[in-house]
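Methods — Computational structure assignment.
A single polypeptide chain was analysed. Its primary sequence is given first, followed by the predicted tertiary structure written as structure tokens.
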Amino acid sequence: MAEINAQLVKQLREMTDAGMMDCKKALVETDGDINKAVEYLREKGLSKAAKKADRIASEGVVSIKIAPDFSKAVMIEINSETDFVAKNDGFKDLVEKTSNLAKDMPTFSLETLEKSSIDGMGYGEYLKTQIAKIGENIVVRRIAGIKATDNQIVNGYVHSNGRVGVLISVSYKDKKNLQACAEFVRNICMHAAAMKPQVLDYKSFDLDFIQKEKVALIAEIEKENEELKRLGKPLKHIPEYISRVEITDTVLKNQENTIKEDLKKQNKPEAIWDRIIPGQMERFIADNTLIDQRMTLLGQFFVMDDKKTITQVIEHKSKELGDEIKILEYIRFELGEGIEKKVENFAEEVMAQMK
């Protein structure tokens, strides 16, 4: 059996926010395999967070540049060792020049940036000179961009702290709505920056993923219900489904028939059923798409109108403008996400990326 030391327990606790003894038990049950221990805690409803082990709180900035006509936009993440340097005027100038250069590249990639020229030299050489001036290691970690075609626009948003950025492109039909659509898209970007959807919609999920998430979600709700029961409060509903991936046409038809049967038992006149059924169907879908509401942009409830999902907000805006708006692409950067702490200080991590 693997040795379960205090450091390993501490690491698992930081990853999951579970209790110390629960973490120790999970590690014992999984023979010290920390990834299996995370899943063990999730399945038991004991994991309160989905954190990445030792994720680095990288310093630096996320920057976005958008064409005035919303025909293209680029987003970059540039890492520095310290927050102090990230606020340095020299670093800010580097970010501005790099962002403007990236916006006009034929393809949005680190490889294309490396081959580009700036201030009369190759970008790689330019970056080295800036590192020498600033006195700290700097890495352009990633680049993403979107180019719009006819009847499409792209807009974006960077949060005031420079640590989160979002790009979204949409299609629309009437060119007179360009400005209105651009403003609307920016509001959706602001929502995504705050609410952290991982993907655009439920079509990104497969059934295996959903089944795994369902076990964890139900365990989480059951754990919450234990506390609610102790406090004498109403219990949370245990959903039969958790994503639109599971809600087929047959499921929807069966639910509609169930609602009709209930209305018949309540002696509700059939003449008013068509005013009742849509609302109840919406409620059924909302109650059974909890993972979509957590993880997908289109499934989340809009922060500026929490009675409507992003999908419903888009439908409402389309009707308001007499248009047909559709989100095509969604990209979100959060500073430092996905960088695992394989070394003890960020300087070494940055140097490793530069090799």
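Note: Residues 201 and 296 are 5 Å apart (CA to CA).
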